[in-house]
Specification:
Layout: H1 3-23, H2 26-34, E1 42-48, E2 56-58, H3 70-82, E3 89-99, E4 102-110, H4 119-131, E5 136-137, E6 141-144, E7 180-186, E8 191-195, E9 203-211, E10 223-227, E11 234-242, E12 248-252, H5 257-271, E13 275-276, E14 280-282, E15 292-295, H6 299-308, H7 312-327, H8 333-346, H9 370-382, H10 386-391, E16 415-422, E17 425-433, E18 439-447, H11 455-467
Parallel strand pairs: 4-5, 4-6, 5-13, 6-14, 9-11
Antiparallel strand pairs: 1-2, 1-18, 3-4, 3-15, 7-8, 7-12, 10-11, 16-17, 17-18
Helix pairs in contact: 2-11, 3-6, 3-7, 3-8, 4-5, 7-8
């Protein structure tokens, strides 16, 4: 190609880039420059929910990693497919004679994917069981988690943090988000480690050095833990622990979901004075009517916890539930992805740029376009469940994952937005109520090595949208 032709092409590319930048708010473009984030690594769509066309559209069709903003897609599909009053049911059978409060046989529990079975709700389940007359169990505990059919995964494969609760795998039978808290209690010369519930068969070994410092910043980063053997019979915690931290709770995903359920069920049962004599084993539940059907909180309530605190396990379980409800059990990731796509297509939302893995955004391969998210937000506005959908999202500078974002901004309290953060990813999408009382769909996706610096550009764009000056 002649040099003149090359120069002409380069000039055209440069001119196009300038034109795109000129269409964007100057304060936003300047903030991106200061953050060293190229415009080509950013996608933006801003559109009034009642408007026919976007006010801003930059790289709207680029397929980018949305991180936890993908939870908007899963949540929208769930509300449309299942409805806000949908509940999960955990079923319990008594396999034996029940007389004078004593079950002479096994207690069988089948999970159907309830992601909201917290310690409090586990206590309520056991209370309901006692109301059915079960006070002591002479047999064992039989757990049926066959509703989900999942491949074996390494929970540390994503980022080398296998015990981080955000990496906890999905499970048909899961309690307390698969987390067990270890309490670190500094004494005169040592740091004791005490679990919130008993862990029979597991020895906790503290190799923590108690240090005399005046500050308690980043104490978790100074600790390491691991099992000393393949049988997970000894958990060793090492590192330096500042006395200034006092007693701290450290939530960890130490075991597979069914094992965590076992520990928590037995621990709570014993705390309430119940006996459970036998061992735990995995088997299918019978097809006879259960002794107890324990319903979860409604989907709308579960979504508030899922989105405001970006709970990955809840999103994964919901994603799998969509597949099982649409195509029958057992649930698989493939069925979940198919069910989500079905809902989007039904609402006229283009899915050609959509890549789904687990529906939570904790993925290196999931992809979505800013245009799809904008279409989804506008479809939610037109749906009967918009109020339920919007109320699940964090409120700028007030709660959830946005509690410490945009403090002091004039947009405080006026934006319901889902955050998304991974290495090289920073995303924000949701609904902004402008100073003039208009609701506007807001989408900003950043995929760049400097994505962690995107907070200032996000705030610049958010405040421009909130001010509603350029309409």
């Amino acid at each position: 190609m002649p040099v003149s032709r090359v120069l002409f092409v380069l000039c055209c590319v440069f001119a196009a880039a300038l034109a795109r930048a000129a269409a964007l708010p100057p304060a936003f473009v300047e903030a991106l420059k200061r953050a060293a984030i190229p415009l080509d690594h950013v996608a933006v769509v801003v559109q009034g929910l009642d408007d026919d066309a976007p006010r801003l559209s930059h790289q709207a069709e680029a397929a980018l990693n949305p991180a936890s903003v993908m939870k908007l897609v899963t949540s929208f599909a769930a509300l449309q497919q299942l409805g806000p009053n949908y509940t999960w049911t955990t079923e319990v059978w008594a396999a034996g004679a029940l007389k004078d409060g004593v079950l002479d046989g096994d207690l069988i529990v089948r999970g159907n994917g309830d992601p909201s079975l917290t310690l409090e709700r586990m206590w309520l389940l056991q209370r309901a069981l006692r109301a059915q007359g079960v006070k002591a169990i002479r047999g064992g505990l039989v757990l049926d988690a066959s509703r989900f059919e999942l491949p074996d995964i390494d929970p540390g494969a994503f980022d080398g943090e296998p015990f981080a609760p955000y990496n906890a795998p999905a499970g048909a039978l899961v309690a307390n988000f698969n987390a067990i808290a270890l309490r670190l209690k500094p004494g005169d010369a040592q740091v004791a480690i005490v679990p919130d519930v008993a862990l029979p068969g597991v020895m906790l070994t503290s190799k923590l050095a108690l240090v005399e410092t005046a500050e308690c910043n980043g104490w978790r980063d100074a600790l390491t833990l691991g099992f000393a053997d393949a049988a997970k019979a000894e958990l060793v915690v090492q590192g330096r622990y500042p006395r200034a931290c006092g007693e701290q709770a450290w939530p960890l995903a130490l075991f597979a979901p069914a094992a965590t359920f076992d520990f928590l069920f037995r621990g709570l049962w014993a705390e309430s004075g119940g006996a459970l004599d036998g061992a735990t084993r995995a088997e299918r539940a019978p097809e006879t009517p259960p002794l107890l059907r324990f319903e979860s909180e409604p989907l709308a309530d579960a979504l508030r916890r899922l989105n405001k605190y970006s709970n990955n396990l809840m999103a994964k379980n919901l994603f799998l539930t969509l597949g099982a409800e649409a195509y029958g059990g057992p649930a698989t990731p493939e069925k979940g992805a198919r069910a989500v796509r079905d809902v989007l297509v039904r609402y006229g939302i283009a899915t050609d740029k959509l890549v789904l893995e687990n529906g939570s955004g904790l993925s290196r391969i999931e992809r979505v376009s800013a245009s799809l998210l904008n279409q989804l937000l506008r479809a939610a506005w037109r749906s009967p469940w918009f109020s339920e959908f919007e109320s699940t999202l964090p409120v700028a500078a007030l709660d959830g994952t946005l509690r410490n974002h945009f403090n002091g901004s004039p947009a405080t309290g006026s934006a319901h937005l889902k955050t998304g953060t991974l290495r090289d990813v920073n995303a924000l999408a949701g609904i902004v109520l402008t100073a003039k009382g208009r609701r506007v769909a807001f989408v900003m996706l950043v995929n760049d090595r400097n994505a962690a610096r995107a907070r200032a550009p996000q705030q610049a764009l958010l405040e421009w949208v909130w001010a509603d000056d350029a309409r």
